[in-house]
């Protein structure tokens, strides 16, 4: 029998969550609203009319959640900080909330006590509402860049002695396109000019926070800092030049729009061609700080799409995407969300592509699957989540091959998510957790997929 190649001992695996999706306690201990608190209260924005007011109550049940992580044998946990818990009104002149800082510090200490490495995201979409009211939030470059840098600095000061892995932003594509383009996420703007401004300002805010960390904290605290971008793998729908060109263009709109400035220093050409004057330019001083502003490549990825030229969706580069192949067959197993089907080979391709294009160590900061119809099941049935186990098997194996056969430098993997939680515009109807949550009692019940991943990583990481 041959021994299969393994991931190195240092490989960090675990689960990811985000503050607004799990914490609840929306008004407790001095927290003030974020744009998601406001957005969720607008009639018709959330599929089941819910909000993150209670969510999985993890602000109160954090000890139970840490024990859950421990029982799964994870090496790392990725979570995000709620900006409006730490600085309730968000700005650089506004008061700091010591109770917020104390909460996160206690959580981080508990994780470390249990041998779990914290990966901390500064911004997972929950902008303090006060900053949106004050100057339009991400639309105001001069203000938001300074306020974000001030918030980041406070976090480095408050937690940086304990945290070695910082992620500035989660998925700027989602923030800019879903929040300011088609308006399905907070703050719900519909525009074809704002997304490009917002994206530009996020890149700058990220770069300033990274510069600050490198200048003032890195030497002393010894950590790494980077950004998490999201991307699907994209494949031409057919063999035509039009589909191939459309695929390259779609990739630049989804990923290159952020990755190229951050890792190479400039916007991709196809994006410039489509957007013209609407795409802001970086000044030479800005290029200086943006280029090279991420120590690693944080990747959130869920699926693969087939791409064709055409349609009128300018926000995504004038392409049409589908999961149905030209012969009518589907790419993979359908999930509970239209945009998500299983396709392991696409994940392997994407890892190879990123490693070759950007040459940075990759951390897969999210990957997961909502089983079709799971929310209609009783807990006894929901825990038998076969499609999620199959998804994780395919994706974990693709990752192993990318590392051990193709030579991609992938250093971590976080399943989305530790718990069923508030799935943004879908509310609580869509369940991504490896742990079932009963939202009436807040009882947590591990699903089979949690057992599967624990076992898989036990077998595939070197002792
Ligand atoms: C990510 N899309 O969001 C987020 O980082 C998580 O907070 C979220 O719960 C998870 O994926 C599952 O949705 C996305 O429309 C939301 O392509 C939408 C898309 C992609 C990612």
Q: The CATH topology is what? A: TIM Barrel
Question: CATH superfamily assignment?
Answer: Glycosidases
Ligand inventory reads: 4-nitrophenyl beta-D-glucopyranoside
Q: Please mark out the parts with pLDDT under 50 across 5 or more consecutive residues, or reply none.
A: none
The rough form would be described as: globular
* Ends apart, CA distance between termini: 19 Å
Alpha carbon gyration radius: 21 Å
- Number of beta strands: 13
Strand line-up of the largest beta sheet: 1-2-3-4-5-7-10-11
Layout of secondary structure:
Layout: E1 12-16, H1 19-22, H2 35-40, H3 62-71, E2 76-80, H4 83-86, H5 98-113, E3 117-123, H6 129-135, H7 141-159, E4 165-170, H8 172-180, H9 194-216, H10 218-221, E5 224-230, E6 233-236, H11 241-264, H12 269-275, H13 284-290, E7 297-300, E8 304-309, E9 319-322, H14 344-358, E10 362-366, H15 379-382, H16 386-404, E11 410-416, E12 435-438, E13 443-446, H17 448-460
Parallel strand pairs: 1-2, 1-11, 2-3, 3-4, 4-5, 5-7, 6-8, 7-10, 10-11
Antiparallel strand pairs: 8-9, 12-13
4-nitrophenyl beta-D-glucopyranoside (PNW) is lined by residues 18, 21, 170-171, 174, 230, 300, 339, 366, 416, 423, 432.
Structure characteristics:
463 residues, alpha/beta, TIM Barrel, 41% helix
Written overview of the protein:
The protein is 41% helix and 15% strand. It has 17 helices and 13 strands. The two termini are 19 Å apart. The mean pLDDT is 98. The structure holds 4-nitrophenyl beta-D-glucopyranoside. 4-nitrophenyl beta-D-glucopyranoside is lined by residues 18, 21, 170-171, 174, 230, 300, 339, 366, 416, 423, 432.
């Amino acid at each position: 029998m041959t021994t299969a190649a393994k991931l190195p001992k240092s490989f960090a695996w675990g689960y990811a969550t985000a503050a607004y999706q799990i914490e609840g306690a929306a008004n407790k201990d001095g927290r003030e609203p974020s744009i998601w608190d406001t957005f969720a209260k607008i009639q018709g924005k959330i599929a089941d009319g819910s909000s993150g007011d209670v969510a999985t109550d993890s602000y109160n049940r954090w000890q139970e959640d840490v024990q859950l992580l421990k029982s799964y044998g994870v090496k790392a946990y990725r979570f995000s900080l709620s900006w409006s818990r730490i600085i309730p009104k968000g700005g650089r002149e506004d008061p700091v909330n010591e109770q917020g800082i104390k909460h996160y510090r206690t959580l981080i200490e508990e994780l470390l006590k249990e041998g779990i490495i914290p990966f901390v995201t500064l911004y997972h979409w929950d902008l303090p509402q006060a900053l949106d009211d004050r100057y339009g939030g991400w639309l105001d470059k001069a203000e938001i860049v300074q306020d974000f840098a001030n918030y980041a600095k406070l976090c480095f000061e408050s937690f940086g002695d304990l945290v070695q892995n910082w992620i500035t932003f989660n998925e700027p594509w989602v923030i800019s396109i879903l929040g300011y383009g088609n308006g399905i996420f907070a703050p719900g703007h519909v525009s074809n000019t704002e997304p490009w401004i917002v994206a530009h300002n996020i890149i700058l805010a990220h770069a300033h926070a990274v510069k600050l960390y490198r200048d003032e904290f890195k030497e002393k605290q010894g950590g790494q800092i980077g950004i998490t971008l999201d991307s699907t793998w994209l494949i031409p729908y057919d063999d035509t030049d039009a589909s191939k060109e459309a695929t390259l263009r779609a990739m630049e709109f989804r990923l290159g729009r952020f990755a190229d400035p951050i890792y190479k220093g400039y916007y991709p050409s196809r994006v410039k061609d489509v957007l013209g004057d609407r795409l802001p330019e970086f000044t030479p001083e800005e290029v200086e700080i943006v280029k090279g502003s991420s120590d690693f490549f944080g990747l959130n990825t869920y699926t693969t799409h087939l791409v064709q030229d055409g349609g009128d969706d300018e926000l995504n580069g004038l392409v049409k995407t589908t999961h149905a192949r030209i012969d009518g067959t589907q790419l993979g197993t359908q999930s509970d969300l239209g945009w998500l089907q299983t396709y392991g080979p696409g994940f392997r391709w994407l890892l190879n592509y990123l490693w070759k294009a950007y040459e940075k160590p990759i951390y897969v900061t999210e990957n997961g699957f909502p089983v079709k119809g799971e929310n209609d099941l009783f807990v006894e049935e929901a825990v038998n989540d076969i499609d999620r186990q199959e998804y994780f098997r395919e994706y974990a194996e693709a990752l192993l091959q990318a590392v051990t056969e193709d030579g991609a430098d992938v250093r971590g993997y976080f399943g989305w998510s530790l718990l069923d939680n508030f799935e943004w515009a879908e509310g609580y109807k869509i369940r991504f957790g490896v742990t079932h949550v009963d939202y009436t009692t807040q009882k947590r019940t591990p699903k089979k997929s949690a057992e599967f991943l624990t076992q898989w990583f036990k077998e595939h990481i070197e002792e």
